[in-house]
Amino acid sequence: MNHQTRVYQDVFEMLPSEENPSPMVRINKMNPSPEFELYAKLEWLNPFGSVKDRAAWAMLRELEEKGEVGNGRGLVEPTSGNTGISLAAMAKARGYHMRAVVPNKIPLEKKVLLKIAGAELDVVNDALCPAPGLGDGSINIAKSHAKAQAKKYAMPNQYENEQNVLAHVRTTGPEIWRQTEGKVTHLFVSLGTCGTVSGTSRFLKGKNPDIKVVAVQPTEGHDVPGLRNVSQLGVSRLFDSSLVDDILEVEFKLAYTRALELCQGEGLLAGPSSGLIYEGAREIILRDKKGFGVMIFPDNIFKYTSNMMKHIPGLATGNEA
Ligand SMILES: Cc1ncc(COP(=O)(O)O)c(C=O)c1O
Fold first, then answer.
1. How far is the CA of 191 from the centre of ligand 1 (A)?
2. Residues of the chain with pLDDT under 50
3. Cα–Cα distance between 299 and 248 in angstroms, integer?
């Protein structure tokens, strides 16, 4: 493989690594302090379209190495969409079947994309980022499929799998350290399974314990797929509070308006969780004034047009014809 010419023998060679990092782009017009450098790391440029390519690949590779997939055994996984899309596309390309268990509330675009990527779909009533151990939610339903049909399904379980954290210790953290030449002072992330925050923070704080890690969360009752609210944090097995300096709560509708502003102001077609992270970064920049910040933008806006129509007045009208 050659990252210079960008000619690859298969899609897996395109996955991000220190040698092939996802791009970082400077925020210009929308940076509130000239003394604070702010960059967005664009995870939607990963081959399957989101930050979850990293965790999905690490979990799948481990299952392959242990011989737990193949010979008729595929995957079952609870997902709010992105992990499922990455896993389904990877699994199909390697010859395994994949079943995704998703909360009903995820955007229609993600449900269709999961099927296009080759997943069989179970749609259940559940929170947008389901919590382990709670009743009949998608995690427990996936677990019961894995138990009842052990010959057919291995369950990576991104909510509890250490590979979800290690993926970011091995890739996202080293990429940011190298791309910023060690100058990073602030990391801005959102919280879903908490793999991104725990892994990236573990690596970066290992290099420089003074780096501030800021996690941004939507208000309760939110409609930002993939994310967790503060009240749901206790149950997140991969969350480690010693690796986070600030947790900000942001009114969830701002996720949508900030995403729109990033599209129209910076030309960055950022999704709602990126919009939320940007709002958190803005608040910290106004507080700290000086620094070098990196925001991890999990995915782009294309999977959220129906959600945007719901939350941004005016977008829904004029589309009737
Ligand atoms: C759109 C989006 N943003 C943010 C996240 C959070 O990432 P993590 O699960 O690593 O905490 C996810 C996770 O699924 C996601 O799909």
1. 6
2. none
3. 20
